[in-house]
Write a structure and sequence with these properties.
It comes from Caenorhabditis nigoni. By secondary structure, the chain is an alpha/beta fold. 29% of the residues lie in helices and 25% in strands. The strands form 4 sheets. Strands 20-21-22-19-18-17-23-24-25-26-27-28 form a 12-stranded mixed beta sheet. Strands 4-5-3-2-1-6-7-8-9-10-11 form an 11-stranded mixed beta sheet, covered by helices on one side. It has a 3-stranded antiparallel beta sheet with strand order 12-15-16, with no helix packed on it. It is globular and about 80 Å long.
């Protein structure tokens, strides 16, 4: 808002006083906001967004008192720590918006005369969601906890989620807010038995408690119950059978557990008796100790009154883990059940990773109809693995699936933006990934993998620990380029020639020249922000790159906040879909030359006349004839004024409005 822009100078001055930074001169001008009449003042403050409210409330004690007078909507307050500390804020009334206060640690490569000095802002568009980020210098956890306390007080909302990355936060949260919905304690934060005992006995976690590995010796055992609804414990060697039986958890995840098959048998028996674990809804125990499959099965089910049911047999297919996190249970042909005295049924599933003496089903001995039914119920990743068994098996899969499931696959994406690299069908869940690319660790040996020959390239594989899709392990990052080439030619033969392949990567990294590949590139760079003097050279480099490349399917994350522009004939304007941040002066020029189908634009402001002129040209068919979707995010576009100026008509509620379906890009 314009009001915020006026008093931002006051905020910057305040921050530099509160944080140990000095100002050389006072702001040149300030808007006398606090001198407005009370009614007008409260109306102005009530229309600020979340970050603006926080900044205003930090100006003075009076401004904080004024901000607290307004009845704000409840806000979700979360402290997360992906790499650096972030306070994430969300309104339940507007789930598409998120405000983040990001605490930046000291950076090595920021020039002295960089325009980005703390604090600074940045807005990002991620599909249907928008992120508004305030960057502050990380001067220690005390500043962060003070900010959290301040936000809770102003918005009268509790903290709902905490990532605890150091031991001092434990003491703070116990004193400030001992009841909280979610807590995640990172690796090696717990350094003593006393710290573990203190948090388990003094903090009440009402939803999910996630504990990574603890820095205690391998012989440590904990026998007290963990009194939280949902517990997720990594490297849970220290959690004993006694602790589990004496607790009253609803959801339990134990990874790398040292529980034995006999311990699991005891858990099942005690549940069946009805005296222990009465609230249990879901339990998952991952045992890393090598076990004999038959012996393990025999010990787990010993002396249990089991019943065997066909398929689901009416049992729930989904389990609420916490909040909106819903886990879909596997669909199996038979399920083992035990029944409690009150009629409650517990269904048991198991998965065994056996490396030796693995028995296989001879698919070839079944009739063709049965083979088809089996193949139809396998995931795409499972069909891919099965195709490596033999040439005949690959031929069988293709003949069975080419005119059904494979025909319905419109796109396959190589997503190399993050780690690990993923090959998947767009808009499908992680469990349906086709494969992943990962790097081998130095201590891993060949006998931990199985090998497959992909288009003449022998690669090492493992299966994902939970979803069991193949993971390709590479000795060096540069090996991924040749691996993608090998898989691409394998996919062309396996899935047929009707699939479009999307290659998503960062600009100036490996860009393959392969058949049926559509490039989706990200052009975001630190240079866009920290080295503005290089922008002209950067645009020339991109121009030359685009001239020698096929027309791009999609351009992501480009920021053009300088007067330099692409030439009107540039392939930049021919990209099918573009997401970019633009200076307001560049928007009309961009839309005049854009020949693609979809674009998302973020700009500070846009003149109404420019928007009206563009819409009238589009309506008359004079420009942007291929445009199907245009999304502009700007601070101050007067909606009603613009709609009236371009002649938008109201459709009566009793009439069916015209529909227009857009393909996903």
């Amino acid at each position: 808002m314009m009001v915020f822009q006026e008093f931002f100078a006051g905020w910057e001055y305040f921050i530099k006083v509160k944080l140990p930074e000095k100002v050389k001169s006072k702001p040149k001008c300030r808007f006398p906001l606090l001198q407005l009449p009370r009614v007008v003042l409260l109306e102005c403050i009530g229309n600020l967004d979340v970050l603006e409210i926080i900044l205003f409330s930090l100006l003075s004690k009076r401004s904080k008192t004024i901000a607290k007078l307004i009845c704000w909507n409840p806000i979700d307050i979360r402290l997360t720590s992906p790499k650096e500390q972030q306070i994430c804020l969300k309104l339940s009334t507007d789930p598409g918006l998120e405000w983040i206060i990001h605490y930046r640690k000291k950076m090595k490569f920021i020039p002295i005369h960089s325009p980005w000095k703390y604090p600074y802002f940045q807005s990002n568009l991620l599909g249907p969601k928008a992120l508004h980020i305030l960057y502050l210098k990380d001067d220690g956890i005390e500043d962060i906890t003070q900010m959290m306390e301040h936000i809770c007080e102003v918005f009268r909302s509790p903290i709902v989620d905490m990532d605890i990355v150091e031991e001092s936060i434990i003491e703070w949260i116990i004193k400030f807010q001992p009841i909280i919905r979610h807590v995640c304690i990172h690796k090696d934060v717990i350094l003593s038995v006393e710290s573990l005992d203190r948090i388990l006995k003094n903090l009440e976690v009402t939803e999910r408690f996630w504990l990574a590995s603890i820095a205690l010796d391998e012989y440590f055992q904990y026998k007290e119950p963990i009194p939280f609804r949902c517990i997720i414990i990594n490297n849970s060697y220290w959690l004993t059978l006694t602790s589990i039986l004496n607790a009253n958890n609803s959801v339990i995840f134990l990874h790398d557990s040292k529980l034995t098959p006999t311990n699991i048998n005891t858990i099942l028996k005690e549940w069946q008796k009805g005296f222990k674990l009465r609230n249990l809804e879901y339990m998952e125990i991952d045992i890393s100790t090598p076990l004999d499959r038959r012996r393990c099965k025999r010990e787990i089910f010993k002396n249990l009154n089991l019943t065997v049911a066909d398929e689901n047999n009416g049992r729930p297919t989904r389990v609420k883990i916490y909040d909106e996190n819903i886990y879909t249970l596997p669909r199996l042909p038979t399920v083992r059940n035990i029944i409690r005295s009150d009629g409650m049924i517990l269904s048991i599933f198991g998965h065994y990773k056996v490396s030796e003496k693995l028995q296989t089903m001879k698919l070839s001995i079944f009739p063709y109809v049965v083979q088809n039914e089996i193949l139809d119920n396998l995931k795409i990743s499972e069909l891919l693995l099965l195709s490596f068994v033999s040439k005949n098996m690959k031929k069988l899969i293709k003949s069975s699936q080419i005119n059904t499931r494979f025909k319905n696959i419109k796109q396959i994406e190589y997503n190399n933006h993050g780690y690990p690299g993923v090959v998947h069908i767009p808009f499908t869940p992680m469990s349906d990934n086709i494969l992943e690319f990962r790097e081998r660790r130095d201590y891993e040996t060949d006998d931990e993998f199985f090998q497959l020959n992909v288009s003449g390239n022998v690669m090492h594989f493992q299966l994902h620990y939970r979803y069991y899709f193949p993971q390709v392990y590479l000795s060096h990052p540069c090996d991924k380029d040749s691996a993608i080439v090998s898989f691409h030619y394998y996919f062309l033969d396996f899935f047929g020639d009707t699939v479009e392949y999307l290659y998503r990567e960062n600009y100036k990294k490996f860009i393959p020249r392969l058949p049926q590949i559509s490039l989706c590139l990200s052009f975001w760079s630190r240079q866009d922000y920290f080295r503005p003097e290089n922008k002209l050279d950067r645009i020339r480099d991109i121009e030359n790159f685009l001239a020698s490349s096929p027309v791009l399917k999609r351009i992501d994350g480009m920021n053009l906040h300088s007067p330099e522009r692409f030439s009107p004939e540039s392939k930049f304007y021919q990209a099918e879909s573009i997401i970019l941040g633009l200076d307001a002066n560049l928007v009309p020029d961009f839309l005049r030359h854009f020949q693609g189908r979809q674009t998302n634009i973020i700009c500070d402001r846009w003149e109404n006349l420019d928007l009206t002129e563009f819409m009238n040209r589009w309506k008359s068919g004079e420009g942007s004839r291929n445009l199907e979707y245009l999304n502009i995010r700007s601070r101050d576009i007067p909606r009603n004024e613009v709609l009236n100026s371009i002649g938008v008509k109201h459709i009566d509620e009793s009439k069916t409005p015209p529909t227009h379906t857009l393909p996903k890009l």
